[in-house]
Amino acid sequence: MTLGLPEHLAKASLSRALASAGHAAGAVCLASALVIAIASIALEPTGEAGSDRQAAIAALVLVGVQAALFALVALRPSVTLTVVYLLGGTAVVYGLTVLVMAPGNGFETTNNAVLAMPRTALLLVGGAGIGSRIAITWAVLGWGLGEAASFLGAATAGAAWAPSAAAAAALGIVIVTRVFDGMTRSDARRETALHRASQQTRELVIRHDYELRAIARLHDTALSHLVAIAASGSGPVDERLRAAIGHDLTLIVGRDWATEHVDDAEAVAAPTGTGGPVAAVVRAAGGHEPSDASSGHPARPGRAGTTSTVATPGRTEPLADALDVARDAGLSVNVSGAADALTAVGPRRRAAIEAAVAQCLMNVARHAGVDDVEVALGRADGEVTVVVVDDGRGFDPDRVPEDRIGLRTSIKGRIEQEGGRARVWSRPGVGTTVMLAVPEGGE
Known about the structure:
By secondary structure, the chain is α+β, with helices and mostly antiparallel strands. Helices cover about 60% and strands about 10% of the residues.
């Protein structure tokens, strides 16, 4: 019996719930006893013949004391208050038995409704602690003390004693309920083991996520830096390239390497008027930047005499940084489809798409043997899709070595981390198509 609660919370929650139910039943018993005492006071005559009225007043005081102690235990359950209530309730039951069983009151034995109520309230104490065993222990102790007090009271009053059927029935209900609760719940050690296993599973998932981020970031930065250094030729390394490498090294060895650092990367690229981090690294290898009079921005030399305009921070071109990487590598990229598709995803997912597309374009430049690439953007059925197509050499995706992490981690792993999917279709001599799809929204 867990009511849908987690295993490690069910025991305490259900134990408190059952104790509260017992407190409610005990409160009803004591309230009924108070009503009877008040009614007896109102109906009894005053004057010399009003000794019964005095007994009714005494009974009212005794029930009131037990009710006050019961309220303290219900509000602040503790071992000390529970023991005080049991002792005080025992004294109350004894005093009430002496008053009720006095000659002339018409009761044959102590098994009557008047004495049953305080005795039943005594075993419904609930007590401190959680668990079925503790609750049954308190209930049995309360029932035993109540019966002992009524026996002594009956002996004092010279009346016949009999166990209370109502109190015995209440004790039976408590025991059955608590035993059933204990049997239907898992063993506490097993619950703890399941909770620990759940925590370990979550930790493994988080660790796997961070490892993928680390591998992808290391692969992207190392590859882009190597390409940039190779393109810079012999001689001293350009100061901008040196600064970009130092910046990325700081991110990798720092304590917050797992974040995207888009703002930091733009800050490093800002002195040269460039865009994102990957583009900044590759552009840094271009050396001087002659001015392009037609655009008003500096231009960069590319392969086969091509040039491309430097991205500015205010550019709205989709996949701007990824396209800059391709152009710096000498690729001619034709972008088609819904230009505003990427506005449907959050900054983090957009950065993941851009980094994955940049890796796709870098792979084309290094392996495909072509200079033209098609990139299509789309948005449908709650997803944003980017497709990268080339008609180059192609390859067999099933025969890619396990140690090649570009496709598996920098592309597929990065997209899957954002809840998306990446699919690759390629055959030797036919070309390659990569489809990236992520859900709309996100961070």
